Amino acid sequence: MTPPPGPRGLGLLSTARFFAQPVKGMEAARRRYGPVFMIKFPGFPAEVFLTTADLAERAYATDAEGGRAGEIRRQFLEQLVGRHSLLTLDHEPWWRHRRLISPPLHGRAIARWKAEIGQIAADEIAGWPLNRPFPLRDRMQRITLEVIVRLVFGMRESPRGARLRAAIPELIEIAGRPTLLFMPPRALEWMLTARAPRGVPFLPTTRFAEVRAEVDDILFAEIAARRMAPDPDATDVLSMLLAARDENGNGLTDQELRDELITLLEAGHETTATALAWTFERLLRNRPVLDRLRAEVAEGEEETYLEAVVKESLRSRPVVYDVPRLLDKPLELNGHRAEAGWMVSPLIMLIHRDPEAFPDPDAFRPERFLGPDAARANKAWMPFGGGRRYCVGAQLALMEMRVITREVLRAVDLRAVDPAPERPKVRHVTLVPAKRARVVARQVTNAQEPPQVQERPQGRKRPAERAKAV
Length: 470
Ligand code: HEM
What we know:
Keywords: Heme, Iron, Metal-binding, Monooxygenase, Oxidoreductase. Residues 443-470 are annotated as: Disordered. By secondary structure, the protein is an alpha+beta fold. It contains 22 helices and twelve strands. The strands form four sheets. It has a five-stranded mixed sheet, with helices on both faces. A three-stranded antiparallel sheet has the order 4-12-9. A two-stranded antiparallel ribbon has the order 6-7. A hairpin with a 2-residue loop joins β10 and β11. The relative contact order is 0.16. Protoporphyrin IX containing FE binds at residues 69, 86-87, 98, 152, 263-264, 267-268, 271-272, 275, 319-320, 323, 383-387, 389-393, 396-397.
């Protein structure tokens, strides 16, 4: 059996070109080499990309024999999420954490959060500027951050909560800078701990270490306070994790809890905000879909079309573009052999563009998830990955997307600043709209009139006004 075909060693220049147009670059590789191809990016092990749902299932199946998705993520993420994280653990320790963390994020558990998510969104939307352009993704991030802080961490109005809200955006921003992300793990560890580099205040590593220490401080204090005074009726993830026990009767330690809270923040906040930004980027350029969705939302609580819109958004613009696995032993793929130690990556961005599963893949057509073709579409739809490492927050993400989309449609009339589609741009392991989904918002009541001077929508108060009124 031969190794998969592909360009093998790419130089730095061709890698940069490749990442400037990731979808086009990968499509060109699929056209040239077929559904399984291999690329060696500088500084990384050989990576075998899989571009159909059937091939992806073969990679996901390796999870059952152990699977080493964590090892791949460790070099980029360990300094932020730590060693006791669902993202970076493998084998039995990962499985233990997964069994403890899944129940609080299960569909039934999170259904109780629906009204509060709607309220968070409504409060935030009430503060959006009117009649002038702004990047929607940034605003969506504020909503999804608040969801994590209140419903995952269980922190509402408190001085600790305020400190945390101030520190988190900077922590996530610095952690995502390429200088930190791609620094060799040992060098990064040294920069973060040794006295000499820590003494240089303008280094991003110095600032990262400071903000991380501040966030850790807050989280450890919160964990200690909650251990002292547990609330048996609380529905937030931290409260439920504090009470959770494994089959030996052991709970998670403070360090494990800290690492998992940061994990849920890191994995769940920007991803969901980006998915919402894409949903509107697509809706605003597909008027008939937007009109049909508006009609459904105006009619009441029915969510069939809304659900299909959310799915089609994640299909046509998947946020996470691939989900690599590190092989423990060789794997046969369409007559080719991938060796132990290689990475195999279901390439979601191309699997979702496979015309066999999604005819006319460029079209934004939620109906593909409703009609007789729905089963075929669902089988190849994998924005949350697959196998045992399937996204643990998928139910929450989907609910947030439905609730927040509905709130936006009710509150404001959005227009795209530029009618041309925004191109997908690589940001860490995600694809984001290149202009962060630039929109203009108008009051929904006078949507047909030309833009007026800025005014707040009737009946909705800014959060600060709301707080004063209480
Ligand atoms: C639209 C939003 C989201 C997208 C597109 C997304 C996508 C993904 C993907 C593709 C993976 C990798 C799965 C694999 O390797 O097969 C993943 C893993 C993960 N996601 Fe999400 N995710 C989203 C939201 C969330 C949320 C809201 C949370 C939690 C609050 C979350 C927590 C996680 C965690 C902890 C993992 C690691 C799971 C493990 O390795 O066991 N995600 N996500």
